[in-house]
Amino acid sequence: MAPLTTMPLSSLKVSKHHIPAYQNFPNTSLRPYPFMIYHTAYPSSLSPTSVEQHLSSVGIVKPAWRYTMYRQHHYHSTVDEVLVVVNGSARLCFGGSVSNPDKLEVQVKRGDVMIVPAGVGHALVEDEGSFEMVGSYPKESDNWDMCTGESDEKDKNWDNIRKLKWLKGDPVYGDQGPVLDVGKEGN
Question: For the chain, what is the HEC assignment?
Fold first, then answer.
């Protein structure tokens, strides 16, 4: 299998979003890093295996699973998450609840990459056909949790998030790319 070719950085369209805390979902309020989407970072000819091989070769994250997204709003307090759409398309909600007035609802498709900072609530709203992602976490993180916004999670989990270091490099582009740009800017 030939190596996967990514969209050149000079042509990559990136959306960055800060999502305020909502109820017991901290979203991006605890750290200066935005939720990001790399639109069509990978070509439509990708396969789950080719994405996993590419992410592994870059070496910032390690692929952990292939699946859709849970319909239950949840967040992670121990890791930042990288999601790559490898099949189909879907409408996703980021922000902890569809009733959150500051939520972000987006349609994602094959080839899109989402950088989900720890604390950002997320859930599947609608699978628009055969939706599947590769989920990855920083190489040095072997433990990720699933928090659902219960009130008893807040003190411990929010403190965990505040202490997390940002990704050591861009999971798709390595020693350059949007993840490093926001790491320098803090926005």
Answer: CCCCCCCCHHHCEEEEECCCCECCECCCCCCCCCEEEEECCCCCCCCHHHHHHHHHHHCCEEEEEEECCCCCCEECCCCCEEEEEEECEEEEEECCCCCCCCCEEEEEECCCEEEECCCCCEEEEEECCCCEEEEEEECCCCCCCCECCCHHHHHHHHHHHHHCCCCCCECCCECCCHHHHHHHHCC
Distances (CA, A) of 130 to 20, 23, 157: 31, 32, 33
Q: Which amino acid is at 6?
A: T
Note the pLDDT tens digit of each residue in 51-93. Answer: 999 999 999 999 999 999 999 999 999 999 999 999 999 999 9
Rounded to 5 degrees, φ, ψ at 38 are -95, 105
Q: The tokens of 44 are what?
A: 């439509």
- The gap from C-alpha 23 to its chain's centroid, in whole angstroms, comes to 21
pTM value > 0.85: yes
pLDDT at 156 over 60: yes
Q: Is residue 173 within 8 Å of 7, Cβ to Cβ?
A: no
| pLDDT at res. 98 | 92
Task: List domains and CATH numbers for the chain.
Answer: 9-182 (2.60.120.10)
Instruction: Please tell me the predicted confidence (pLDDT) of residue 143.
Output: 85
